[in-house]
């Protein structure tokens, strides 16, 4: 796996590089600017870009803008965005144009090495990794009069774990229920969110994006 790291904090940038190289992953470039991200993606053709949300010069949304542009220039590039805290608009902006090969994690998750590496590998394989705290906070900000109000407490828990990228068996294990119970909850979630079967839409992804969109419009 070829990786580019874009992080303006030198300690975190170097720490990430050391951690990933210790795991026998190929860190081909590190940078502290959004322009550096695009140059590195063009020069090294990485599989994954790990990008900080806030980068120079204004430390607002440069990282998100660079991540979106990098994926435009290199289709199929997996991007794992890191943020110091939950930034609702940035999370939904990144995820709203498709979620394959995308992740959004809080920086504190890096210290939980196994969780961080699991998210990285999931994103590199074309999956989605959304930090549990991001999921939690977006749920609490969602309007009471949205379709999410139709969901039971258990269904919300299932959807939150779906948003983290967990499969049915992993969700069942986390909630200490059977796989069959999870299947029933997910079918109910799809029905309550008006997600009909279609060959063009992954209903699991659509369900997660539905609440993200509702949260963004709050």
Automatic annotation (TrEMBL):
A family per Pfam: Response_reg
Keyword terms, alphabetized: DNA-binding, Phosphoprotein, Transcription, Transcription regulation
Domain HTH luxR-type: residue ranges: 144-215
Annotated positions of the 4-aspartylphosphate modification: 52
Organism: Streptomyces rapamycinicus (strain ATCC 29253 / DSM 41530 / NRRL 5491 / AYB-994) (Streptomyces hygroscopicus (strain ATCC 29253))
Identification of the protein by name: LuxR family transcriptional regulator
InterPro entries recorded: CheY-like_superfamily, NreC/VraR/RcsB-like_REC, Sig_transdc_resp-reg_C-effctor, Sig_transdc_resp-reg_receiver, Tscrpt_reg_LuxR_C, WalR-like
SMART domains: HTH_LUXR (SM00421), REC (SM00448)
GO molecular function: DNA binding
UniProt xrefs under Gene3D superfamilies: 3.40.50.2300
Gene Ontology biological-process entries: phosphorelay signal transduction system; regulation of DNA-templated transcription
Response regulatory domain sequence ranges: 2-122
Entry's transmembrane regions: none
């Amino acid at each position: 796996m070829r990786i580019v790291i874009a992080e303006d904090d030198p300690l975190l940038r170097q720490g990430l590089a050391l951690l990933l190289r210790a795991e026998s992953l190929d860190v081909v470039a590190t940078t502290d600017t959004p322009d550096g991200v695009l140059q590195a993606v063009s020069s090294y053709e990485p599989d994954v870009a790990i990008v900080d949300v806030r980068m120079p010069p204004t430390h607002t949304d440069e990282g998100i803008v660079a991540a979106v542009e990098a994926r435009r220039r290199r289709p199929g590039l997996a991007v794992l965005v890191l943020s110091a805290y939950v930034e609702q608009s940035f999370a939904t902006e990144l995820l709203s144009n498709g979620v394959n090969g995308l992740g959004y994690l809080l920086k504190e998750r890096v210290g939980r090495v196994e969780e961080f590496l699991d998210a990285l590998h999931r994103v590199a394989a074309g999956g989605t990794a959304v930090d549990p705290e991001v999921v939690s906070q977006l749920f609490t900000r969602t309007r009471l009069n949205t379709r999410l109000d139709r969901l039971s407490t258990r269904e919300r828990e299932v959807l939150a774990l779906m948003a983290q990228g967990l499969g049915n068996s992993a969700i069942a294990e986390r909630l200490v229920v059977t796989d069959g119970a999870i299947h029933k909850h997910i079918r109910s979630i799809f029905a309550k969110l008006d997600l009909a079967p279609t060959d063009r839409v992954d209903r699991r992804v659509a369900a997660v994006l539905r609440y993200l969109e509702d949260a963004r419009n709050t």
